[in-house]
Specification:
Largest sheet of chain A: 9 strands, mixed
Helix content of chain A: 25-40%
Number of helices of chain A: 12
Largest sheet of chain B: 5 strands, mixed, barrel
Distance between the termini of chain B: 42 Å
Distance between the termini of chain A: 16 Å
Structural class of chain B: mainly beta
Oligomer: heterodimer
Structural class of chain A: alpha/beta
Radius of gyration of chain A: 19 Å
Order of helices and strands of chain A: EHEHEHEHHHHEEEEEHEHHHHEE
Number of strands of chain B: 9
Strand order of the largest sheet of chain B: 5-6-7-9-8
Largest interface: A-B, 38 and 42 residues
Helix content of chain B: under 10%
Shape of chain A: globular
Chain lengths: ~375, ~140
């Protein structure tokens, strides 16, 4: 039994001083319930998570303590994907018919400062200044640019597109455009990545109401089907975040593994996908993830960005809501934001950032520390 | 008057053999599957076996990937620097003979001096001074 998404809700991303992260989650949940036309009292289970804003099940304090099984999920950048994965298993097992998935967060300014002990790493790794995810992406990118001839201009084009898409999305945080020159000449953070090529930790909340595919039409005319959802963690040898050594970089990383599994599950290939939301914590990540998820060959990104092929109007739109760069990254909500945006696109409700041509297949991808990735394929 | 010799301590003893004339990085080699990982660990990251033996890593390799850290990280970064005295530092992966790539601080922080494929060698530096004057030693790689 497949899972259908019948309701979606979002709390705008960015900075909302008057609401806690958890309140933003509850806000999104109320909107998702309203969108589905379902009462909270009819929800049979919940999965959700946040990194910095407490236990997701506490939103029931606002929505009503109905006694349902509500499981808190924490799986770094794959928190949303893992929550949705758990919900699809709940439904496919026959244990429940309808449930809610929620993710929210509210982070302090500045780069994340993770504790090495939480990742099974020695304290030295943090003390020596190596415990920053930004460094990993920068190092991987330096090598990638060297190996495949990707230019700094391509990185700037990715960021320029993200901010451009953000201006079209009323829920985005960054809603002003930057020129390629402004992006390239902004403060260097981790070579070759400048400030405007990075996303920042932010705030926001997203919720989805999900149910059995065969009863979805009771609730809405336009259910979106979760055709595939795969989550994978790192293999020994692969080049991944917080890797003190890399034994064999030919070993597929978590993204490559999750992507291949999702295509197999859905029985389709990248050529069948109409648009994609790819983890873009920085501009280079989007470039590398394009190839890792099968949307081009390594190095082909250079011409694709130059020709605008990944713009909303292009042949393969990527990060149509502005992605992490325009929305920031509230860890618990970020992966579900991609799903929210994809559902909007598949319903034809994305307004100014709508992909033309009635897209039928959407794809989402997250990747994060310490080498975990989740991919979903959504279809109408 | 007696002068007290400054004490030197490795940032973590699992990283390198210290003190010795030519300190080397400490890695684990699995007795069952042969997988190597840095730093020294109690079990194999590939197959999970606890039959791992210590192996010393070569002191020279080639720069495989790099970046420069331009802003001072929040704690747990601990370097006895202040925001005023912070100097950007290089980071990279060094491709060692045998194929293992290890992550390391770099002594060089000028992007113009860092080239993928360039020869690099192991060095040690004082990462910070403790209140009692103890020097905390860390490893790094430097362009040859």
């Amino acid at each position: 039994m497949k899972t259908a998404i019948i309701g979606i809700g979002i709390h705008p991303f960015g900075r909302t001083p008057e609401r806690s992260g958890m309140e933003q989650g509850a806000y999104a949940a109320r909107l998702a319930l309203k969108d589905a036309g379902v009462e909270w009292q009819n929800i049979q289970f919940g999965y959700g998570g946040s990194y910095s804003s407490g236990n997701a099940d506490a939103i029931a304090n606002e929505l009503g303590l109905t006694g349902i099984p509500f499981t808190n999920v924490m799986n770094a950048c794959a928190t949303g994907g893992s929550s949705l994965l758990s919900a699809t298993k709940e439904i496919s097992s026959g244990a429940a018919d309808i449930g809610i998935v929620v993710g929210f967060d509210k982070h302090d300014r500045g780069a994340f400062n993770a504790d090495p002990a939480e990742y099974g790493l020695g304290a030295w790794y943090g003390e020596a200044g190596m415990m920053l995810t930004t460094q990993f992406f920068a190092m991987k990118l330096q090598k990638y640019m060297h190996d495949y001839g990707i230019s700094v201009d391509t990185l700037a084009r990715v960021a320029e597109k993200a901010y451009q898409n953000g201006t079209l999305n009323p829920n985005a945080w960054r809603r002003t455009t930057f020129t390629l020159e402004q992006i390239k000449s902004s403060t260097m953070v981790n070579d070759p990545l400048t400030k405007y090529m990075f996303c920042s930790p932010s705030e926001g909340g997203v919720a989805l109401v999900v149910c059995r595919e065969d009863i979805a039409h009771r609730y809405c005319k336009n259910p979106i089907i979760v055709s595939a959802l795969a989550m994978r963690t790192r293999l020994h040898g692969a080049f991944e975040v917080y890797g003190t050594s890399v034994a064999d970089d030919a070993i597929p990383n978590a993204s490559v593994q999750a992507s291949a599994a999702a295509y197999e599950m859905a029985g389709i290939g990248p050529e069948d996908v109409d648009f994609a939301q790819l983890q873009d914590t920085e501009a280079g990540a989007e470039v590398m993830h394009m190839a890792e998820n099968g949307f081009c060959r390594h190095g082909e990104q250079e011409s694709m960005l130059l020709n605008g092929e990944t713009r909303i109007s292009g042949r393969m739109p990527i990060n149509t809501d502005g992605g992490c760069m325009a929305n920031g990254e509230p860890i618990g909500a970020s992966g579900l934001r991609q799903v929210y945006e994809s559902v909007l696109q598949l319903r034809g409700q994305a307004g100014e950032h709508q992909v033309q041509g009635n897209p039928r297949v959407g794809y989402t991808h997250v990747y994060g520390a310490p080498g975990v990735s989740a991919v979903t394929i959504l279809q109408r | 008057m007696e002068t007290k010799l400054t004490e030197q301590k490795p940032i973590d003893p699992v990283l390198f053999n210290w003190p010795q004339a030519e300190p080397t990085l400490r890695a684990s080699r699995c007795a069952l599957c042969g997988a190597i990982a840095f730093p020294l660990a109690k079990s194999c990251k590939s197959c999970g076996s606890e039959e791992v033996a210590e192996t010393e890593l070569p002191r020279r390799g080639k720069l495989w990937a790099w970046t420069i850290q331009h802003f001072m990280p929040k704690p747990p970064y601990n370097s006895s620097e202040t925001p005023e005295t912070f100097r950007p530092y290089g980071l990279g992966y060094i491709d060692l003979p045998g194929g293992l790539k290890i992550e390391s601080r770099l002594t060089e922080n000028d992007p113009m001096q860092l080239k993928i494929g360039a020869d690099m060698e192991l060095v040690f530096y004082t990462h910070r001074l403790e209140q009692d004057g103890t020097e905390i030693i860390n490893y790094a790689f430097k362009p040859v």
